[in-house]
Design goal:
Elements lengths: L12 H13 L2 H4 L7 H8 L3 H13 L3 E4 L3 E4 L4 E4 L6 H7 L5 E10 L3 H7 L7 E10 L2 E10 L15 H9 L5 E10 L2 H7 L6 E10 L5 E10 L3 E4 L5
Parallel strand pairs: 3-10
Antiparallel strand pairs: 1-2, 4-5, 5-6, 6-9, 7-8, 8-9
Helix pairs in contact: 1-4, 3-4
C-alpha cells in the first residue's frame, strides 16, 4: 500500500490520514495482529506533523478500531466491533469498511402476522402478514449479534431474495426503497435462553439490546429491527456535532 496523501487537496490532512489508516487496518496482515507503522515513521512518510497524525489515530482509538499502548505500539483491536450511530449503512457495509469479514451463522425468513406494536408502527391491519428475517452473524470465531427484522408489505419483498447481500443495497437496487432515516433505542438486557443460545453465551449474561426504526425518504416506515449484541464484543459509539 502506498503511504501518501494529497497536500494540495481541500480535504483536511487529518481526514486524509484517517482514511488512509482505515484502508491500512483493513489489510489482512494488520487484522492478524501486526503493529501499524510507528507515529514518527508514518508522519515522515506522509509529510505531516505527529499532532495531525495523532488526531487521526485518536479518532480510530475512540471508535474502538485501534488499540494504542505506550512503548508497545498501535494495532487493530481484534476483540471488539464498533458501530457508529451517525454512519447510515447496512451492517454488512459497516463491517466491510472496518475490514471485518462477517459470517452468517443462521438465516431464516418467514411470513408472520404482526403483533399490536408492529401493526401500529407499520400502520397496517393485524391480519396483514409481514416478512420476518432472523440472522445470527459474527466473525469466524463465533457469533456476536442476533438480528430480527420485520418489513413493511409495501416494499414488495417475496422472501426469495438473497439476504446475504447488504440489506439496504438490496432494498434500493431491487425495490427502489431507500432507507433514509433511522431512529434507535438502546438498552442493556440479561440474555434470555433463546438469545443466549443464539449468541453462544450463558442465560443471564448481559447483552446490548437495540431497537432500530427505519424510514424511507418520505419518512414512511419500512423496517422494524431488533438487535441483540454480545456485551463483551461490541462497542456502540455516539458522535454529536454542534
Amino acid at each position: 500500500m502506498k503511504y501518501a496523501i494529497d497536500h494540495k487537496s481541500p480535504i483536511p490532512l487529518h481526514i486524509q490520514a484517517e482514511e488512509l489508516l482505515r484502508n491500512l487496518i483493513s489489510q489482512e496482515e494488520f487484522q492478524n495482529g501486526k503493529l501499524l507503522p510507528n507515529e514518527v515513521e508514518l508522519s515522515k512518510l506522509l509529510a505531516i506533523s505527529r499532532t495531525t497524525l495523532r488526531q487521526a489515530i485518536n479518532k480510530l482509538v475512540y471508535e474502538g478500531l485501534l488499540i494504542r499502548k505506550k512503548r508497545a505500539g498501535t494495532k487493530v483491536n481484534q476483540s471488539t466491533v464498533s458501530s457508529k450511530s451517525n454512519n447510515w449503512l447496512s451492517f454488512s457495509q459497516e463491517m466491510k469498511l472496518r475490514g471485518i469479514n462477517i459470517k452468517n451463522f443462521e438465516l431464516h425468513v418467514t411470513w408472520v402476522f404482526p403483533d399490536e406494536t408492529l401493526a401500529n408502527f407499520f400502520e397496517i391491519k393485524a391480519e396483514k402478514k409481514v416478512l420476518k428475517m432472523e440472522r445470527v452473524r459474527g466473525k469466524s470465531d463465533g457469533p456476536f449479534v442476533y438480528f430480527i427484522s420485520y418489513f413493511h408489505p409495501r416494499i414488495g419483498l417475496t422472501g426469495d431474495e438473497d439476504f446475504k447481500r447488504p440489506l439496504y443495497e438490496l432494498l434500493e437496487l431491487d425495490y427502489s426503497t431507500i432507507a433514509s432515516l433511522s431512529k434507535e433505542e438502546i438498552s442493556a438486557h440479561a440474555a434470555e435462553e433463546v438469545i443466549a443460545e443464539k449468541l453462544q453465551i450463558e442465560p443471564g449474561e448481559p447483552v446490548l439490546f437495540r431497537k432500530r426504526f427505519v424510514f424511507d425518504q418520505g419518512e414512511r416506515p419500512i423496517e422494524y429491527n431488533l438487535g441483540y449484541y454480545k456485551a463483551d464484543s461490541f462497542v456502540y459509539t455516539v458522535e454529536s456535532r454542534r
